[in-house]
Amino acid sequence: MEHYYRELVSFLCARLGNRQAAEDVAHDAYLRVLERTEGQQIEHPRAFLYRTALNLVVDRHRRHQVRQAEPLDVLDSDERWHSPAPSQSMQLDQRLALMRQALDELSATCRECFLLRKLEGLSHQQIAERLEISRALVEKHIVNAMKHCRQRMRQWEG
Asked: Could you cite one Gene Ontology molecular function of this protein (predicted)?
């Protein structure tokens, strides 16, 4: 199913008008498909992947619409945005520690690709140039890192 990645990103880029957003949606689509079909054979993998990606685009658009409609002064005055409940912040600290642990289990290159993409927002091409590896390898590392982290978080939380 990985060989559909570039095609899917191009398809999503045409709809979203932004390559980075298209790559993010493609990653999320791959993760959803991998999670839902683990060990199962998919009859029409390309169609399933595209449908999942389009659903994510619709969800993304709806979230954007809701954010646009929310007045900023309401968000500023809402205490919840400034000080999370103690149990909530502890839970967040625990989740971050677990995420760090999952990332430490990855190879250095895989972890670096993931962090450059998710924390620094670099494109796949920029990461490939910085690490002197192919763009396809960058894409594979990012998908593998996301899948690994999700699986580990599920194991630890479940």
From this structure: sigma factor activity
Q: Contact, 32 vs 52, CB < 8 A?
A: yes
Write the CA distances from 142 to 76, 82, 96, 131, integer angstroms.
35, 32, 18, 13
Query: Average pLDDT for residues 100-106, to the nearest whole number?
Result: 91
Distance (Å, whole) CA 42 – CA 74: 45
Q: Give the domains, in start order, of the chain with CATH numbers.
A: 1-68 (no CATH), 106-157 (1.10.10)
Q: How far is CA 26 from CA 5, 71, 72, 77, in A?
A: 7, 30, 30, 36
Q: Is residue 27 within 8 Å of 143, Cβ to Cβ?
A: yes
